[in-house]
Design a protein that fits this description.
This protein has 310 residues and is an alpha/beta fold. It has one domain: Homocysteine-binding-like domain (TIM Barrel). Strands 1-12-9-8-5-4-3-2 form an eight-stranded parallel beta sheet. It has a two-stranded antiparallel sheet with strand order 6-7. A two-stranded antiparallel sheet has the order 10-11. Helix 4 packs parallel to helix 6 and helix 4 runs parallel beside helix 13.
């Protein structure tokens, strides 16, 4: 039986607060991430900055840090001239940075809250670096998909993550491959988090009902939900999952700002549309793990963590 750190943590707190954006927060601190490797580039160039962002999220009240391994794959690093051993060492380092931030925060704050490190497993579409993680318009035979994910999953687990965050998943076939791959690591557990086409379908058009069937039957998947989606899409999709699935639900959407792909700039969110504004609504729709994705900040996480104070 796989261990379930989410169920254990939820015995100590009603809502687990996840961290917020890593890549856009690194950009806000001066990193240029106009690169196919995205935040994985900073693992190579300025790892202490990643440590600092993780530490700031814990200090803001997050219970879970998601590692800087979303875009970190041997295949992606190979394009930079790194061999597999160097690539796996960077993936291991992504875990160590988050663990050190957690341990330092715990030591300085004397916090007794459950503090977890989730190893980010981004989709194959993220490696393609062409926006495919929001469309799911790619196909790879299951064994090839497992071969793509296996080295990173193994490295994250060996580095001691508490669980895997299989996140920003747009493709049902890829989710099936990941469920199959997890079985090779029987002591592991993961959350699965999807991108959406609309409130009824993930990005590749698969109905949420079919997704819920898959995760419901997978004992190693310990929470399910959505991330990297617009704030207004969240509640109806959560309610759909709530009706279909009895596993803890998670959500970490974008900030509510709109991204203009032609000018590559962000525009401010409609008023009344922040994580804090929506927090109680998402809890009512069944979310037990709540955080932020692109463009959310430690301040956003502090605002929702404050909602959980007794």
């Amino acid at each position: 039986m796989s261990r379930n750190p989410i169920a254990q943590a939820l015995t100590q707190t009603d809502t687990l607060i996840l961290d917020g954006a890593l890549a856009t927060e690194l950009e806000a601190r001066g990193c240029n991430l106009a690169d196919a490797l995205w935040s994985a580039k900073v693992l190579m160039e300025n790892p202490e900055l990643i440590y600092q962002v993780h530490h700031d999220y814990f200090a803001a009240g997050a219970h879970v840090a998601i590692t800087a391994s979303y875009q970190a794959t041997p295949q992606g690093f190979a394009a930079r001239g790194l061999d597999e051993a160097q690539a796996l060492a960077l993936i291991t380092q992504s875990v160590q940075l988050a663990q050190r931030a957690r341990d330092d925060y715990r030591a300085s704050s004397a916090s007794t809250a459950p503090l977890l490190v989730a190893g980010s497993v981004g989709p194959y579409g993220a490696f393609l670096a062409n926006g495919a993680e929001y469309r799911g318009d790619y196909a790879l035979p299951e064994e090839e998909m497992k071969a793509f994910h296996r080295p990173r999953v193994k490295a994250l687990l060996e580095a001691g993550v508490d669980l895997l965050a299989c996140e920003t998943l747009p493709s049902f076939a890829e989710a099936q491959a990941l469920v199959s791959l997890l079985a090779e690591f029987p002591a592991s557990s993961a959350w699965f988090s999807f991108t959406l086409r609309d409130a009824e379908h993930i990005s590749d058009g698969t109905p949420l009902s079919k997704v819920a069937e898959l995760v419901h039957a997978a004992p190693q998947v310990v929470a399910v939900g959505i991330n990297c989606v617009a704030l207004e899409s969240v509640t109806p999709a959560l309610r759909r999952f709530q009706a279909l699935c009895d596993k803890p639900l998670l959500v970490y959407p974008n900030s509510g700002e709109q991204y203009d792909a032609s000018s590559k700039t962000w525009h401010s969110a409609p008023s009344g549309c922040t994580l804090h504004d929506k927090f109680a609504e998402w809890q009512q729709a069944g979310a037990r793990l709540i955080g932020g994705c692109c463009r959310t900040t430690p301040q956003d996480i502090a605002a929702i963590a404050a909602c959980c104070q007794p």
